[in-house]
Each structure stands twice: as structure tokens, then as C-alpha cells.
Amino acid sequence: MTDLSRAKACVQAHHAALAHASADTVAQALDDHLAPDVLWRGMHPFHEQTGPAAVADTFWSPLLCSLTRVQRREDIFFGGDNTLDAGGTWVASMGHLMGLFDAPYLGIPATGKIVMLRYAEFSRVTDGRITEQAMFVDLLHLMAQAGCYPLPDMTAAQLVQPGPMTHDGLLRDPQDPGEGAATLALINRMIHSIDHANTADRPPTPQEELAQNWHDDMVWWGPTGIGATYTIDRYITQHQQPFRQQLGHRTFNGHICRMAEGAYGGFFGWPNLTMECTGPYLGLPPSGRKADMRVVDIYRRDGDRLAENWIFIDMLHFLNMQGLDVLAQLSVRGR
């Protein structure tokens, strides 16, 4: 087995152990595959944790107390060598955690119905153990399903987001290295195009910028708060323009992992961006405060252009840094 095959097998075994775990046994399930000093990064209010017991106490045990009969509905699974300075072999998994919402969670009222919690997970595997992991879940999406969405209407569409149109996102077997290299090169070219558009004295139009790297019928599966949008023109009006015009003083902080395999690739940062709401954005007035955006991007390449993009943003952390504690407001309303 190659290092990547062993890393994928480790993550798959980790997922299998979680599938059979309860709130009472999940700490042991995590201990089976996470390193004793694993660095775990979770969205607000979970943040950084060290060690399997802390990950269980902070995230998995409370979740499994609230969502029963949880299934991992995985849409994308791929891995690769991190091309950034931090290095390492990483594996990405993305889809939904489906369960019955039987008890309140973080102040979000239970529905007794099926809920689909969007997730994206990046795991670094070293010597057969997961030594780092980032777990992004879309809590605003869960709030919307529970009927307590706290923000103004989204500029794009809110829905349960599907996996790839091509239904080929589960890369269990080895892939052609040339395909992964082409995907990574395209992702890097797209990032360079954004940098150029932000700094050029005579920047291209948004349509010209995007047409360099995206198919015209691109699908941008954005986080709840923004929503999903389709085609270059609608992406510009429903996400890019508000994002660029209402969020200023941006600093790009870089990524922790950037990799690709086959036609799939992606990255995450901690945080990727720091910016200020010069707004209004998501209903927030201009704040004068800097706030971080922790972001996951996962891409599907089709030929020489990007076709689909799944995005996760730690919205609750960004809002909290801007002075809006969404979870605290839920708790107050629930009293």
C-alpha cells in the first residue's frame, strides 16, 4: 500500500468506528484512530481541542445525544500530499451527517425529524494515526431546518446540497497522478486570478476573471447565510459582488492544507481571511472590527475549467467577532 492508500484506510476505519459509536462510547472510538495529542479544529463554538477525550466531550458526545441514528452520507472522499509548507498526507471527506433531531443542540430546538448537517473534514495521517483534523459543520444550515434561522434572507438559495453532478466523488482507489496535478494547477491558477483582480491597476471584469477558470454553468454550493448559486452571472450577483463590496480591508492569511487527487481538490485555512464588515453584510451594520473567516473550499474540475465548488465558512465565528453571538441569542429566546 502507498502512504496515501494507508491514510485513506485509516480515515475510513475512523468513520466506521464512529458509525457504531454512541454518546457514551464515542471517546473510545476516537481513541482508536486519533493520536493522543491530535490537534482538532472545529467551528464556533468548538474551536481547537487537543486529544480524543476533548474532541469527544466538546463535539461528538453532545452531537450524538441530540442527533440519534446518525448516518454519514458521504459525497466526496479524496486525499493527497499537502503542497504547502506544513506538508503531510491528508484525506478529505465531505457530505452530510443525517440523523433524527431528538434533543436540543446548542440551543437549537429539536424537531423529531430527519436533519442533514453539512460537513467537511480534513485529516492528516501520520504513521497510521490521525494527528490533525479540521471538522467544519454548517450550524446555520441546521438552524434553518429547525425553523430558527437567525439572519436576513440569503442572496442565494438555501437547500440540502447534493454531491457532484457526475456522482464520482468517492475516490477509494488510486487515481492517475496527472489528473490530480492538473486539478491542483487549476486551483492555484484560480487563486492567482483572484489575487490579480484584487490588486491590478486595471482589473478584469468579474465575468472576464471567472471565465478564465470556470465553466459558465458553474455551481457554487455556498454556506448557509449566503446560499447556493448557479452560472457565472448569478454567482457574481448573488455572492461575489456583496462579498467584495460589503467586506473591506481584507487580509489573506493563507491555507494550512491544499491538495488534489483526480478531478477533486481543495483547501482549508485557520483563518483564511481577516476582514471588516464595511456592510451591511448578512444584516450586519458597518462595525469597524476585524473578523476572521475560516473557510473550506472543495472543487470538481471538468476538463480545463472548474465546474463545482462546495464552500464551508465558520459563519458563527465571523459573526461573533463582529459582535453578534447567534448561539447566545438562541439560548435567550429558548428560556
Q: What would your notes on this structure say?
A:
A hairpin with a 2-residue loop joins β5 (114-126) and β6. The protein is α+β, with helices and mostly antiparallel strands and 335 residues long. The protein has 2 domains: 3-145, Nuclear Transport Factor 2, Chain: A; 177-334, Nuclear Transport Factor 2, Chain: A (Roll). The longest helix has 23 residues, at 177-199. The chain contains 9 helices and 15 strands. The model has no long low-confidence stretch (mean pLDDT 95). The chain starts with a helix and ends with a helix. The protein is globular, with a radius of gyration of 19 Å. The protein has a 6-stranded mixed β-sheet with strand order 2-1-6-5-4-3. The protein has a 6-stranded mixed β-sheet with strand order 8-7-15-14-11-10.
User: What is the number of strand segments?
Assistant: 15
Q: What class would the helix/strand composition place it in?
A: alpha+beta
Along the chain, the helix and strand elements come as: HHEEHEEEEHHHEEHEEEEEEEHH
Low-pLDDT runs of 5+ residues are none
| Order of the strands making up the biggest sheet | 2-1-6-5-4-3
* Share in β-strands: 25-35%
